[in-house]
Write a structure and sequence with these properties.
The protein is of the alpha/beta class. The protein has twelve helices and nine strands.
């Protein structure tokens, strides 16, 4: 049975990768710090959540997950940080009215003294370490092409430190160096939202940012005709976690594909 191992499978994007893989007939295992399944947003989600094996590991300690790599055909690294402050995720994913002051005031940071909560460690080192460990694994069936997927990013966002994109691109370079041992897939989504949130009319922070970006893109297309390149680069299309997940599984199943899966390719998949 085809299988997939998702690191960070209970996260914002990771949960949808797990869901899509289950729906496509994969045996799915999620590894995360807590080992717990994601919160059920709707009763129908319980069906696919119950089909995933939810396991615990420390992404920075290979000994905690090497046992799972031995039988894995496909590995996905869906762990990373946008800011070097863990409390921002609660703000972004919470149901908050849009308020610039709230955006900038992230609140208490339970990991502010954790030296590992940095772009270098979380976005780069954890991914490169995982890829290197996976590359070492020898399968009994050598005809199976192992895929290593890294969730990178299309562009940075205004106000986000340069270290964010630098760590993403640096990780991509290191993973591509292992292409003789595995098939690398580098996914570059833009600003992501969840379709279930928008369908329910949820007014959380992500939904509001999506609406603003969609309006900016509509204006750029209809009033500026996308003729100003700097504006085109600033206002990139939004993409749903479901779109990203479907495009990712599609590329995993295409043995001829490796390298960068761009935002445009994700949208057009």
């Amino acid at each position: 049975m085809k299988n997939i191992l998702v690191f960070g499978g209970n996260g914002f994007l990771g949960r949808r990768i797990c869901q899509t893989a289950v729906e496509k007939g994969y045996q799915v295992t999620s590894l995360s710090r807590s080992g717990a399944p994601p919160r059920v947003k709707a009763t129908w989600e319980k069906e696919w959540i119950d089909k995933v094996k939810w396991q615990q590991c420390d992404i920075l300690n290979p000994k905690s997950y090497t046992q799972y790599l031995r039988d894995a055909d496909n590995v996905v690294h869906s762990i990373g940080i946008l800011l070097e402050d863990s409390s921002y995720k609660a703000q972004v994913n919470g149901k908050l009215a849009f308020d610039v002051k709230k955006l900038l005031q992230w609140g208490p940071n339970p990991m502010k003294n954790n030296p590992n909560f940095t772009y270098e460690v979380m976005n780069k080192q954890s991914a490169v370490m995982l890829a290197q460990e996976f590359a070492k694994v020898k399968h009994s069936n050598d005809s199976v092409s192992k895929t290593m997927t890294y969730i990178s990013a299309d562009k940075s966002f205004p106000g986000i430190p340069s270290g964010y994109m630098e760590s993403k691109r640096a990780a991509e370079v290191e993973i591509m160096r292992l292409e003789q041992e595995l098939r690398p897939i580098l996914v570059r989504p833009g600003f992501m939202f969840d379709e279930s949130d928008t369908s329910l009319g949820t007014l959380n922070f992500r939904s509001q940012v999506k609406n603003m970006l969609d309006l900016a893109n509509w204006s750029n297309k209809n009033f500026l005709g996308r003729r100003i390149e700097c504006v085109n680069q600033l206002f990139r299309p939004t993409v749903s976690t479901q779109q990203v997940s479907r495009a990712l599984i599609q590329k995993i199943e295409d043995p001829s594909f490796e390298g960068v899966l761009s935002l445009e390719n994700i949208i057009n998949s």
